[in-house]
Structures are given as structure tokens and as C-alpha cells.
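Design request, C-alpha cells follow.
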């Protein structure tokens, strides 16, 4: 086994053990926020870095996933793990629709369409009354 593979295995084991080794909620929260931004940056890099399409709509999907997970946990009183799973599935379904509409556009038109989609969803979330 190469040294690189051993290093990845050790790093993975440390990542799994980290929540059990750290007693401070602050440091655990700090690592969770950092990993969240790593995932957001990776998602943006996947679209802008590899395809050249600049998207301003990533907040739509992260917001929909988080909001759906929060609704499932608070209103339906199910496990947070199920809430995250359903939030991801619902964000994926919205992403399929937004992608179907926006991926027909290229360049600045794609960027403006995703920016407009983000604004539409922001206005819906801000003005929603239940």
C-alpha cells in the first residue's frame, strides 16, 4: 500500500473519531461550518471550474434543503437524519427543474437566470406566511 493511501486512511479515521474526541461544542461547530463551506465551494467549482458555467443559484438548493430539513424536524418531529435526507432529495428535485430550464442558456444568460432564480426563491421564502 502506498504512503498516500495510508495517509488518506489515517485522515479518514481521524475525521470519524473527531466528534468523539472533541468535548467543546464550539470546536465541533467550527469544523461543521468549515466542512459546509468546503462542500459549497466544491459544488460551485464543479459547475464553474469544470464546465465554465458561472452559477449564482447554488443558494437556492442549499436553502431549500436546509428549510425542508428544518420543517421535517420541527413540524413533523422526525429524526434530523431523515430531515437531512428528505431535504437533499427535495433540493435535488428542485435542482432538476432549475437545471432543465437554465442549462439551455450559456454565458451571462445562464448566470442571470440562476441569479433571478435565487431572487425568486428568496422572495418566496421571505414573504411566505403559514
Amino acid at each position: 500500500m502506498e504512503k498516500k493511501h495510508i495517509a488518506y486512511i489515517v485522515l479518514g479515521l481521524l475525521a470519524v473519531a473527531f466528534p468523539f474526541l472533541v468535548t467543546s461544542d464550539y470546536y465541533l461547530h467550527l469544523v461543521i461550518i468549515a466542512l459546509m463551506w468546503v462542500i459549497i465551494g466544491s459544488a460551485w467549482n464543479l459547475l464553474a471550474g469544470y464546465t465554465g458555467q458561472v452559477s449564482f443559484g447554488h443558494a437556492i438548493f442549499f436553502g431549500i434543503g436546509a428549510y425542508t430539513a428544518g420543517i421535517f424536524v420541527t413540524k413533523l418531529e422526525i429524526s434530523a437524519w431523515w430531515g437531512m435526507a428528505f431535504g437533499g432529495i427535495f433540493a435535488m428535485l428542485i435542482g432538476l427543474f432549475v437545471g432543465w430550464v437554465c442549462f439551455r442558456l450559456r454565458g451571462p444568460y445562464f448566470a442571470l437566470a440562476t441569479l433571478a432564480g435565487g431572487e425568486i426563491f428568496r422572495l418566496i421564502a421571505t414573504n411566505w406566511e403559514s
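Comment from the thread starter after seeing the answer: thanks! Residues 56 and 64 are 15 Å apart (CA to CA).
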